[in-house]
Amino acid sequence: MNDSPARLPLRTAAAVKLGNLSSTLSQKMGLGAGGMIGGRVALKLDPQALGRLTQGRRVAVVTGTNGKTTSTMMLARAVGALGEVATNHSGANMPDGHVTALSKQPDAPYAVLECDEAYFPAVAGASNPSVAVILNLSRDQLDRVGEVRTIERSLRDAVNKLQNCTVIANCDDVMVTSAAWNASKVVWVATGTGWHHDSASCPRCGNPIRWQGEHWHCTGCDLSRPHPNWITADEAMITPEHQKLELRLTLPGKFNQANAVMAAAAAHAMGVPADEAVRRLRGVSNVSGRYRTIQRGGRSARLLLSKNPAGWSETLTVVKEANHPAVLVINAQEADGRDLSWLWDVPFERLQGRTVIASGERATDLAVRLTYAEVQHTIVPDPLKAIDQMPQGAVEVIANYTAFRDLNARAAADE
Amino acid sequence: MSESTIQIALVLPDLLGTYGDFGNAVVLEKRMTWRGIKAEIVPINYGQPVPDSCDIYVVGGGEDTAQTLAVKHLREHPGLQRAVTKNAVVLGVCAGIQIFGESFTRADNVTHPGMGLIDSSSHAGGSRAIGEVVAEPINGLFAGPLIGFENHQGRTTLGPAARPLAHVKVGTGNDGSVEGAVQGRIVCTYLHGPVLPRNPALADMLIEWATGTKVAPIDLPAVTSMRAERVRAAS
Question: Which pathway or pathways does this protein act in (chain A) (predicted)?
């Protein structure tokens, strides 16, 4: 293992310097957080920048439909036990975001990169990762990202090409299992995650998948649930050495337990002892503003991000525990996907009997869905005004991507 | 099951439910229940025989492998075809228009036999049609405009026995000029997923066909504002 990254060729070094300069300019001029512009400039000047910037580092790439940002943050915390880690924190998960993050920490011997599913083949190909984490795959932004099976096939091809890489894969997800099935080294993690709506038929041969409890197998080919090396138990995990470790996470919900076990298994593959990994990642509490609570005139509003049916389904389970009023915020900008058909795959019926406000740029589309779910609601397009119209006390705010980003920025500016 | 309950068959939701297609069955059920008409959704999953006794069949969209599997299943268990001869009402969404036809040809140039329920054939178009659609129903079949979202590679040509559903104003539809198909009591459309939530008049037309009685409109302010917003955004 190299202790320090290889020296950068002159062209990359110059591209990185110019890139960093534009990040700083972008921040100074108030144009953005500078998370991507620097990388964009560097990639233009040197298309091989990503490969050169990862050379000599131990790299982990994290991908999947849901939980990427949280798992990346957890993994980066855990790998911090070994040394300095370069990571793209703010969800800037495309190659320009990676170049920006790597060039800001040129001497960090480790890199943990969150990667958009569609960019995984390019990023994995360029960065030669020693660990690749595939969390889950479900329907998301069909008009932009494409259908789940297309994504699964491209991940499968990319993973099969990787040399000396350990793939950390969720064996409770049929699509992920298929993607990692032929990889040279796989660590299987039972996450207990529950979205099966995209895997009635086998991604490899098309025959029906049969489920028996947690076990599943294809009725036409040899694809079946592998024996897990790591297991997510109730608020705990079981390591390959059969050691039970309490998770005691700060973040709520079953899906964050799944994220934590995936991150711990990945950290372990990079050389961090399991108990130390858990001790470190447990502290992750605020992931780019997610799960944070804002105070507005006697209301404590908890901000939750959900981007697609699987994510909403999990979040509705988290908010079920208390019967707090809920503000639901929906946009359909480019980054969200322009098509809102997915609203009909979310079980909003679970909110019957609650105080609900439909909000966001596409509040009326949501209102139609709530009407047919027989959930009483009012429409207040501005989410901050919607929070202010709720009774005093706890309020749950669930928003999709750009809605969450904008609300979070406005709430931070108000504080 | 009692004669008076309208049964809505949700056909292969596990294969043909990529785009929120469940919404179409929910809208039919609620719009009947709210009017005092007994209705229930009957999901027919992959591997189960297809009954021929339902009143309305809703068939959704799916990815290529799922679509091929669905056609195979529906040809092996021809309950839907028998139901059509008994005058059942059928809504085919997105992939529906392709699999109900005589044949469909994929991008790989392989031609698959369809179910032969409507006089049409489909083939892969040069580019994927993605985006909002606004179309005017032909001959005032129901109150327009017909609005929705399309995301498909296929293009469809209708034969003389099928009529188009609407004239395209914005978007692509079957071929850039017309959208969907009507043949007997079968309605097909490329407007994928929840087309009935967006078009209550189309939902009510199917309900009237199935029940044989006229229904009064239902005033849902959210639906009215959403329709106005979508038409404004598309034009």
Answer: Cell wall biogenesis; peptidoglycan biosynthesis
Q: Say yes or no: B229 contacts chain A, CB-CB below 8 A.
A: yes
Domain positions in chain A: 10-281, 293-414
Say whether residue A248 is in contact with chain B using an 8 A CB cutoff: no
Can you tell me the distance from the alpha carbon of A177 to that of A191, in angstroms, rounded to the nearest whole number?
12
What is the dotted CATH code of the domain comprising B6-234? 3.40.50.880
For A257, the enclosing helix (H) or strand (E) is: helix A254-270
CB-based contact (8 Å) between A334 and chain B? no
pLDDT tens figures, A304-333: 999 888 889 889 988 887 889 999 999 999
Strands (E) in chain B, as ranges, are: 6-11, 39-44, 56-59, 89-93, 103-105, 111-113, 120-137, 146-158, 166-170, 178-179, 181-183, 186-189
Which tokens go with A15? 């591209």
Could you report the per-residue pLDDT of A208-247, keeping only the tens digit for each? 888 888 899 999 999 999 999 999 998 999 999 999 999 9
pLDDT digits (tens, 9 = 90+) for B21-52: 889 999 999 999 999 999 999 999 888 899 99
pTM: 0.82
Chain A interface includes B19 (CB < 8 A): yes
Q: How far is B96 from chain A (nearest CA, A)?
A: 17
CA dihedral A25, A31, A35, A39 (to 10 degrees): -60
CB contact under 8 A, B222 and A371: yes
What count of CB pairs under 8 Å joins A to B?
Answer: 90
CA distance A162 to A173: 21
Nearest in space to A60 (alpha carbons), one of A363, A295, A272, A275 = A272
- CATH topology for A293-414 is Protein-Tyrosine Phosphatase; Chain A (3.90.190)
- Beta-carbon neighbour count of residue A314 at 10 Å? 21
* CA torsion angle A397 A401 A406 A407 (round to 10): 10
Domain ranges in chain B are 6-234
Report the top-level CATH class of A10-281. Answer: alpha beta
Is the bond preceding residue B145 a cis peptide, omega within 30 degrees?
Answer: yes
B192 assigned to active site: yes
